[in-house]
Amino acid sequence: MPVGYTFVIADDHPLFRGALKEAIAGIGGASSIHEAGDFESAKALVVANEDIDLVLLDLSMPGASGLSGLISLRGIHPSVPMVVVSAHDDPVTIRRALDLGASGFISKSASMDEIRDAVQTVLAGGIAAPIGLDLGVERDPEVSELIKRLQTLTPQQTRVLGMLGEGLLNKQIAYELSVSEATVKAHVSAILQKLGVDSRTQAVIQLSKIGTDPLSAV
Question: What structural domains does the chain harbor?
């Protein structure tokens, strides 16, 4: 394995961040590990570091709304593997995380060895999901349709949708992305069309359907 992986650990519990850090510290030699305790900090780290090899993302951090946090970060760096780390380790949540682009899922009840194995699997180009768990198929037709629609968004459209979910205005999004407001409007129009909705508000409502407690509605 090459030496010197760069990781981002995004979790609001310092003790659990410490456990993750300990689990992955020896992988690939001298690893560089960045930590974030809220979603804004995690996003800033992902934006600022082009050389990230892997992000470990908690679904329930301040500023993130469940799987919508995953969607936002995937929009920023679609090529960077993201591994969801969550106490919500039911098959429905795991399957939806993987469907929305996660490269793996680690339960917060996993052992150090299981965490390390999962991370190494993803770094080697694989998908890491809990062993022996039948993920089944999506039973909610509305969510299934929504996930299919979200999968059609380009990375930039995905990023804009995440910003809409954060309540940003077009001019704020334009500033963040260093593009014109006209470009943002074009992205928003495309997002509305692909999601089959008529307004930004409806798009945000759709995004919230895969929000916190991913998915208590199940």
Answer: 6-123 (3.40.50.2300), 141-208 (1.10.10.10)
